[in-house]
Structure formats: C-alpha cells, structure tokens
Amino acid sequence: MCQPCVSNVTHISSPLAIEISQARELSDALEQIGLTETRPTLVIVGGASGLTQNYFTRLQRLFEEKIVPLVEKLKAYVVDGGTDAGVMQLMGKARLKLGGTFPLIGVAAIGTVILPDRENTFADAAPLELNHTHFVLVPGNNWGDESPWIADVASTLAQGSPSVTILINGGAITLRDACNSIRVNRPLIVVAGSGRTADRIVAALEAEDADRQVNQVAQFEKLSIVELENDFHSIGKAIAEKLSSPSSQ
C-alpha cells in the first residue's frame, strides 16, 4: 500500500475526488473513493466543436437514447476527461436527465481544472462536470496530460471485464486518447460522420493521412467504424458487443 502518497478524498459539490501523483497509487486511490468492483468499462473520448446545431442535437440524442440506457443496463463504468465541455458534458447531463446510477468517472490533469480553494494560473482552466460521480485528479498542467491516465484508470477498473473506447468528433488530444487506448490494447469504436478526428481516421482507411498517429489508429486491428445514423442502432450494437465479450479486454 502506498497510502501516504495518495491525497485525502475530497468532495467537490457531490462527487468524490482524489488526487494522485504516481501510477502505482492508482488501485489504492480508486478503492479509497469506493470503486472496488470489477465491471465492464466504457471510455468516451472526443469533443463537440465545429458542429452545426443539428449535429450537436444528434449527439445529445445519441447519449440520451442509446449510450446512457445501454451503460445503465450493463451496470458498466464510464470513464472520460471529466470537464464541463463536449462529450463529457453531454454524458453527465444525459446521466442526470435519465436518472442513471452507474459510476461516471472523470480523469483530469490537476493543473487544467478549476477547483475550490485552489489557485490556478492556467489560462484555459475548465470547470469539472459535476454530474460525474467521481474524479481522479492526476499530475499535469496542460491539456492532454490526462490522456494516458484515462486509459490506465479504465484498465484498472475493468481488470478482467471487457472494455471499449468510443471516439466521437474530437481534436488533437482525442487522437492522443485513441493512441493510449491502442497502447493498452483496448478496442476502439470510431463514430463516422461525427466530424474532425473521427472522420480523419475513417478517411485514412481509404487514403493515408499526413499525420502518423492518424494512420496508426486507422491500422489498429481492434478498430471498428460505425456511422452516426438516425436511430444509433449500429453504435449501440457495437458498444454492447464489445462490453459483453470477454475477448474485448
């Protein structure tokens, strides 16, 4: 046990939060905030920038009509970046609206988020999305520092249970998130038609992208592509299959 290295559990409004400084502290930290069960785990990465109102509304529907009900049914964990923006905001609001009971864990670099009673000089610091149930605050002062931690938190939570990452829209940091899912050999679902990084990965299947990381993701053997169709059937089916299959881990 490296208990002395792990910061005390704190409350940010209603969610539980814990700060860690080293990867070896992760299991103990998750136990301290009550995350002790092994469950299927869904990682959500991406953004919601550069979308028309119509597409943004479709993403809202995706979370409310398909992702949240499915996660609730499977009693899964959900892990994301935890800030009040993009897909993280959509996830938190959808869980609240539908009365979800599953744990929703935000993983954020400590220097990039606004916390009570803590001064932050980072100009782009963001508030946490407080419909999350738990936060793991990790070292870092720049966007993207949380990326490897998101992958590792999900692996620690899932352990022997299946897990999958779904990528929606997103920018450069989302690409880094995808590469970290590949690092831990986690299956990756990319939502085609959701814009930006997601669509660049899909396009790279047809013609090589100038970015090495985009090509790396496109060539990942556990990559699945699903369309952002109106009824979201393919997306729900892909997530359900990955989270129900022992071979997904």
Automatic annotation (TrEMBL):
InterPro entries: LSDAT_prok, TRPM. It comes from the Bacteria. Residues 39-230 form the LSDAT prokaryote domain. It holds the Pfam family LSDAT_prok. PANTHER family: TRANSIENT RECEPTOR POTENTIAL CATION CHANNEL SUBFAMILY M MEMBER-LIKE 2 (PTHR13800:SF12), TRANSIENT RECEPTOR POTENTIAL CATION CHANNEL, SUBFAMILY M, MEMBER 6 (PTHR13800). This is LSDAT prokaryote domain-containing protein.
